[in-house]
Write a structure and sequence with these properties.
Helices cover 59% and strands 0% of the residues. By secondary structure, it is mainly alpha-helical. The termini are far apart.
Length: 219
């Protein structure tokens, strides 16, 4: 008889522990289900989220979800982890010739909406972080790190062309935008908009790197 841990008895599904002959499980709908999970998580938070809600949003059977993810926690971890895939393509990033130009070029309506969605997802998992420390690393890798890495790339370019000093603390400064965006959304409960992002670029990041704007621009 296959051993069943106490934590798994709630779902009474041994399909993942007992080998079966026959058709392989279809994972083709996984991305759709994971995206539905993120939507529900952003709307209700982790504590308010249920497998039933996700199944209804994805138009999938609840049993299908439980066969793939034995608990809500497993589903959330997988969904958040998958967010980082294909986030930013280095070859598709803007290269305007100036650091400010590159940073400003990233401010697009779709990027702002995507950023806000990620912040709401982060807010949704806050109650889970204290119970599952591993989730903090997953959340950081999926929500914070992709944008920070883009900022690092832009700053390395700026160093290479002599626009900013080689000793610039790009590790710290690359985290300014995602950190302040998180604070604005999670603590202040305010939206992220173009004006806010420009104020960080022109008022914090560029001055910290020794770049002074003669007149702050909204473009």
């Amino acid at each position: 008889m296959a051993h069943t841990d106490a934590a798994d008895t709630t779902f009474a599904d041994t399909s993942d522990t007992v080998p079966k002959l026959g058709r392989k499980r279809d994972h083709s709908r996984d991305p759709e289900i994971l995206d539905a999970a993120l939507d529900v998580l952003a709307e209700t938070g982790y504590d308010g989220m249920t497998i039933d809600m996700v199944a209804a949003r994805a138009k999938a059977g609840k049993a299908t979800l439980y066969r793939r993810w034995p608990s809500k926690a497993h589903l959330v971890l997988d969904a958040v982890a998958c967010m980082k895939k294909g986030d930013y393509d280095p070859d598709g990033l803007p290269d305007t010739g100036t650091l400010r130009g590159d940073l400003v070029a990233m401010i697009k309506p779709h990027s702002i909406e995507d950023g806000e969605r990620k912040m709401h997802i982060m807010a949704g998992v806050m109650s889970m972080l204290s119970r599952d420390p591993d989730l903090a690393d997953v959340v950081s890798a999926a929500i914070v790190e992709p944008r920070a890495e883009v900022n690092r790339l832009f700053m390395r370019r700026a160093i290479a062309r002599g626009e900013i000093p080689a000793e610039s603390d790009i590790e710290t400064l690359s985290m300014i935008t995602p950190s302040m965006a998180s604070y604005r959304t999670l603590i202040l409960k305010k939206q992220i908009d173009r004006e806010f992002l420009l104020s960080i670029i022109d008022g914090v990041i560029l001055p910290a790197l020794g770049i002074r704007q003669t007149a702050p621009s909204s473009h």
